[in-house]
Amino acid sequence: MKLIITIVAKDDAPRVIRELVSKKYFVTKLASSGGFLRNGNTTLMIGIADSEVDHAIAIITEFSKNRREFVPNSIVSEFGMISAVPIEVNVGGATMFVVDVEKFIKA
């Protein structure tokens, strides 16, 4: 048994969850935030059989694609915060951790 802990952009989470659930995977959703842009993320925990890990990873990868977006850019100086030209950054994708589960109990 494995536990996949994956962090996806909040915009991608509904599609990822919908597809995983349609394939009969059990998914627990946790709201989270952080990272460079401080955008909302969703952390998913998926308990899964060892033989199904690659399939679940393929689903997560397919529905959480990287994309480029423009974000506000500001410069902090001794005179305060100055708004500058927006910058283009990569967002989306998924960060995944696959860990062994010593014991699984569903009560």
Give the secondary structure arrangement, pairings included.
Blueprint: E1 2-9, H1 13-22, E2 26-33, E3 40-48, H2 53-62, E4 66-77, E5 80-92, E6 94-100
Antiparallel strand pairs: 1-3, 1-6, 2-3, 4-5
* Low-confidence segments: none
CATH topology: Alpha-Beta Plaits
Fraction in helix: 10-25%
CATH architecture name: 2-Layer Sandwich
Mean pLDDT: 84
SSE order, as H and E?
EHEEHEEE
β-strand percent reads over 45%
Oligomer description? single chain
Distance between the termini: 17 Å
Shape: elongated
Question: What is the CATH class name?
Answer: Alpha Beta
In the sheet with the most strands, the strands line up as 2-3-1-6
Contiguous helical run count:
2
Structure description:
The protein is an alpha+beta fold and 107 residues long. It has a single domain (2-100), classed as 2-Layer Sandwich (Alpha-Beta Plaits). The chain has helices at residues 13-22, 53-62; strands at 2-9, 26-33, 40-48, 66-77, 80-92, 94-100. The chain has a 4-stranded antiparallel sheet, with helices on one face. Strands 4-5 form a two-stranded antiparallel sheet. The radius of gyration is 17 Å and the shape is elongated. The two termini are 17 Å apart. The relative contact order is 0.29. The model has no long low-confidence stretch (mean pLDDT 84).
Quick synopsis:
The chain is α+β, with helices and mostly antiparallel strands. 19% of the residues lie in helices and 53% in strands.
